[in-house]
Amino acid sequence: MTLKVSLAALAAALALASPARADIVFTSWGGTTQAAQTSAWIGKFAEKSGTKVLQDGPTDYGKIKAMVEAGKPTWDVVDVEGDYAVQAGEKGLLEKLDFSIIDKSKLDPRFVTDYSVGSFYYSFVIGCNKEAAKTCPQNWAEVFDTQKFPGKRAFYKWSAPGVIEAALLADGIAADKLYPLDLDRAFKKLDTIKKDIVWWTGGAQSQQLLASGETPFGSFWNGRITAIEKTGIKVEASWDGNITAADSLVMPKGVKDKKAAMEFIAFATSAPAQADFAARTGYAPTNLDSAALMSPDIAKTLPDKQTARQINADMAYWAKNRDAIAERWYAWQSK
Amino acid sequence: MPQATALVGPSRGQRRTSLLLALPALSLLIVFFALPVLALLLRSVLEPAPGFSNYVTLLGSSTYSRILVNTFTVSAVVTVVTLLIGFPTAWALALMPPIWSRLVFGVLLLSMWTNLLTRTYAWMVLLQRTGVINRTLIDLGIIDQPLPLVNNLTGVTIGMTYIMLPFVILPLYGVIRRIDPAILQAAALCGATRAQAFRRVLLPLVMPGIAVGGLMVFVMSLGYFVTPALLGGTANMMLAELIAQFVQSLVNWGMGGAAALVLLSVTLSLYTLQLRLFGTSGLGGR
Questions:
Q1: Which one of A194, A225, A245 terminates a domain?
Q2: CB B243 within 8 A of CB B263
Q3: What is the number of other CB atoms lying within 10 angstroms of the CB of residue A138?
Q4: Cα distance between residue A272 and residue A282, in whole Å
Q5: Which residue, among B234, B241, B242, B255, would best test binding to A if mutated, counting the most A CBs under 10 Å from its CB?
Q6: What is the pTM of this model?
Q7: Domain count, chain B
Q8: How many domains does chain A have?
Q9: pLDDT (tens digit per residue) in B19-31
Q10: CB B230 to CB A205 under 8 A?
Q11: Nearest CA-CA distance, residue B81 and chain A, Å
Q12: Burial A140-171, CB ≥16 within 10 A → b, else e
C-alpha cells in the first residue's frame, strides 16, 4: 500500500520534471568541445528552427545501449567516436539518417555512413612544450627514442585509434601498410617506452600535462595544442604522420522526434556551423564548403591542411576489431 | 514473559512502526538500486550465452586476477595508513579545548564538501614531477631527481587516504570522547606503564571505533574510482574502474555484471563479518 502510494507520488514528480514540449536532447563529451558545440550549433539552431535543444553529457555507450533496449532513448543526437558509430550502426543501435534532410553531397565522404555523419575531425599530433623540452621530437620514431629524447611522454589512455598506429609508424612500417594492424609488433614497440609514458584520460588533463611540462612532449589532439597556444605558453605541434580520427553525430534507435533531430544534424553539419565550430576549437570541419568561409589564418592551422603527411585511421577496421583490441590493450596496460 | 522482552528490546508494535517509517527509503532503494543491480547481475549469467562463461573468464585471466589483487592491496594499504594518521588525530581532537577542535572539524568538513575531482586534480598538481613538492625539495637541494609521487601506488595512497580520513576520525572521536579519563589514571595507579595502559586499557575500548572506521574505509576503497584512475598508473587499476570500462566503453555487460558481483560479494561478506564481531554498536546505535 505505502509502496504503491510512494510509487504514484514518484511517477507524478517525474512527469512534472520532464518537459511538456517535444524538445531534443544533444549529448556530447563536455568540456571545451561541448561548449564550442553549444555556441556554434545549439543557440543558432534554436533561433532558426524554434526547437529547444537540451544538453546532457558525457557520452556513455552503456547508456545508449540501455536506452535503446528500454525503447525510450532520452538522447536524440549524440556525439560519439567514429569507430563506435560504425560498430553501433551495424549492431542495430542507431537510426538510419535521412539524407533528404541532411545534404551529404557537401560532407567529407570519409566520415559518412548510413547511420552517422562526421561531427568534427581531429588529428593526433606530436605536441611539445618548447620551454620544458631541450629539443622537440619531430616524428613518431623520435617520440619513441628514449636515448635522444629522455623523460616522460604523454599518450591517450583509452583503447582507440592513434597510439597503436603511432607505434607502428615509429617502428618503420609504411603509412599505406598500416592496416590490418600488426598488434604484436605494436605492443613490442610500446614496451620499449612503457615506463616513460604518462597516460592522459581526457583533453583537460592532456593540457595540464603539457602546459606544466610534466610531460614535455607526447601525442595530443591538435585542438588542445591550439588551446594551450592561446594562453601564451610556447608549444608547437609537429604534423609529421598526424593520425586523424573523427567524431560522429548519431541518433539512438527509437528517437521520438526524428525529424527535429535530423534537422539538428543537418544544421550542425552545414558549412557555416562547421566553420564556426572549427574556428573555436582548432578541429577540422567535416563540411567541404566550410574552409572557404573561414579566415585563411585559422584555416591553415587545421588538420585538413596537413594531408600530405597524414594518416587516416581506418574506422571500418577499428569498428570490426574494437573489442578484441581493447581487451588486449587494457591487459597490456595493467601489466 | 512479556515484561522481560519489553526490557530487552523493542516490542512488536514498535518494530512494526519503525519498519513503516523505513518503508519510503526502502522502496526507493529497491526500485532504483536493488532492481537495476539485480538486472546487471542477471546479465552476467545470461550474456552472451546462458552459463558461467563470464566468471570463468574473469577468474581465469591473469589480467583480471591481478586487478582483483590490486584492489585489495590498495584498499588495505589505504586503510592502514588512514588509521595510523586518523587515530592520533582523533585522540588529539578529543583532548583539545573545544574552540580548537571545532576549528579542526570545520576544516575536515570543508574538505569533505569540496568537489572530489577538484581535490584530486589539486593533488596531481602538488605531487607530479614538476609539482610543488618536488620543486621545493629540489630547490632546497634535498633531492636531485624528482620523486615518483604520482601515477603509482604512492599517489593513489596519498590521494585516497586524504579523502578517507574524515571517515576514520569522526567515529574514533566519538568513541574516544566517551572514555572516562579516570580509567587511564586508574591504570597508572595500578602500576601500568604508558604502553601497557595504551595496549590493555585504551585500545580495547577504542576497538569498536577502529573496526567501524577501518571497515568503512576498506569497503569504500574497494569501490573507489576517480582517485585511482587519476593519481594511479595503469598498473594500479582497480575493480571499479574495470567495471566502468566494461559497462561504458566496451559495452560488455555480461563481464561488467560478473565483476560487480565479485565486488558485491566481497563487500557483503566483510559487512557480515563486522556485524558478527562488533554488532551494530559502533554504527551509531548503542
A1: A245
A2: yes
A3: 15
A4: 15
A5: B234
A6: 0.79
A7: 1
A8: 2
A9: 888 889 989 988 8
A10: yes
A11: 24
A12: bbbbbeeeebeebbbbbbbbbbbbbbbbbbbb
Domain of residue A286 covers: 22-121+246-307
Question: Domain with A230 in it: what CATH number?
Answer: 3.40.190.10
* A143-188 per-position pLDDT tens digit: 999 999 999 999 999 899 999 999 999 999 999 999 999 999 999 9
Q: Are A258 and A113 members of one domain?
A: yes
Do residue A86 and residue A107 come from a single domain?
Answer: yes
CA pair distance A322, A334, nearest whole angstrom: 18
User: Which residues partner with A235 through β-bridges?
Assistant: A129
Q: Is residue A325 part of a domain?
A: no
Does B253 contact A62 at a Cβ distance shorter than 8 Å?
A: yes
Whether the per-residue pLDDT at B100 is higher than 50: the answer is yes
Q: Which of A220, A245, A270 is the last residue of a domain?
A: A245
Q: Do B125 and A2 touch (CB under 8 A)?
A: no
The answer to whether residues A117 and A254 belong to one domain is yes
Closest CA to B249 of A118, A87, A133: A87
pLDDT at residue number B10: 65
Q: Which domain holds residue B81?
A: 52-283
Query: What is the CATH number for B92?
Result: 1.10.3720.10
Position with higher pLDDT, B182 vs A78: A78
Q: Report the complex ipTM.
A: 0.71
Of B27, B129, B130, the CB nearest to A3: B27
Q: Which of A3-17, A238-252, B111-125, B185-199 has the lowest mean pLDDT?
A: A3-17
One-letter amino acid at A283 equals Y
Interface residue ranges in chain A relative to chain B, Cβ cutoff 8 Å: 2-3, 6-7, 10, 60-63, 65, 132, 152, 157-159, 198-199, 201, 205, 208, 212-214, 323, 326-327, 330-331, 333-335
Residue ranges, chain A, pLDDT below 50: 1-21
CB proximity B33 to A under 8 Å: no
Query: Are residue A41 and residue A114 in the same domain, yes or no?
Result: yes
